[in-house]
């Protein structure tokens, strides 16, 4: 914890949105980002609580106090390594996560002014790509093959984890490009699709194979694999059985 009193002297500062006259001319992301100095100041507001509710509330179990401290100290690569221990794709979650960590932040509960955890996470991920901290790994293969059915968030995360453990991974998906709802459900103004493509390129360079336009029947799985991981998600919405629901 670099600055134990920062939360008393530094107000919460969000990056905000691009000016309207800019964003009406394209479909790109509307959220802006702070400069490095202001971003580090926002990270300094983390109090490193004895009982970090943010850590408990995060579905991934991210270590928010630890990567906030590294960010505050300007240790961007260390911040990314801490974040990547629990999060395969912080560049996605830093944009689209509802930030349950912020809802449970002690500064939210006591002052209604939580640490900008989600924005800090996105900034760390972007710095990692920009500075070359994220690069293809040289992975020793264990001789086993795994087929993953579905190239959505779950399928991509499973592929990334299994590939890192030495399995030869092939991902099948019915769509023409990987991403699932990241690509086909979330609009560009929230998650620009080149962000997905950038990550897919890293995964391909690491040896993960993507076979798109393959609508696999889970009752007739492709042959030649030692294991299968079904990650088809829930693409069919649940109907509301009520009068005049339409």
TrEMBL record:
<keyword id="KW-0560">Oxidoreductase</keyword>
<dbReference type="InterPro" id="IPR051394">
    <property type="entry name" value="Glutamate_Synthase"/>
</dbReference>
<dbReference type="InterPro" id="IPR036188">
    <property type="entry name" value="FAD/NAD-bd_sf"/>
</dbReference>
<dbReference type="InterPro" id="IPR009051">
    <property type="entry name" value="Helical_ferredxn"/>
</dbReference>
<protein>
    <submittedName>
        <fullName>Glutamate synthase [NADPH] small chain</fullName>
        <ecNumber>1.4.1.13</ecNumber>
    </submittedName>
</protein>
<dbReference type="GO" id="GO:0051536">
    <property type="term" value="F:iron-sulfur cluster binding"/>
</dbReference>
<dbReference type="InterPro" id="IPR028261">
    <property type="entry name" value="DPD_II"/>
</dbReference>
<dbReference type="Pfam" id="PF13450">
    <property type="entry name" value="NAD_binding_8"/>
</dbReference>
<dbReference type="Pfam" id="PF14691">
    <property type="entry name" value="Fer4_20"/>
</dbReference>
<dbReference type="GO" id="GO:0004355">
    <property type="term" value="F:glutamate synthase (NADPH) activity"/>
</dbReference>
<feature type="domain" description="Dihydroprymidine dehydrogenase">
    <location>
        <begin position="24"/>
        <end position="131"/>
    </location>
</feature>
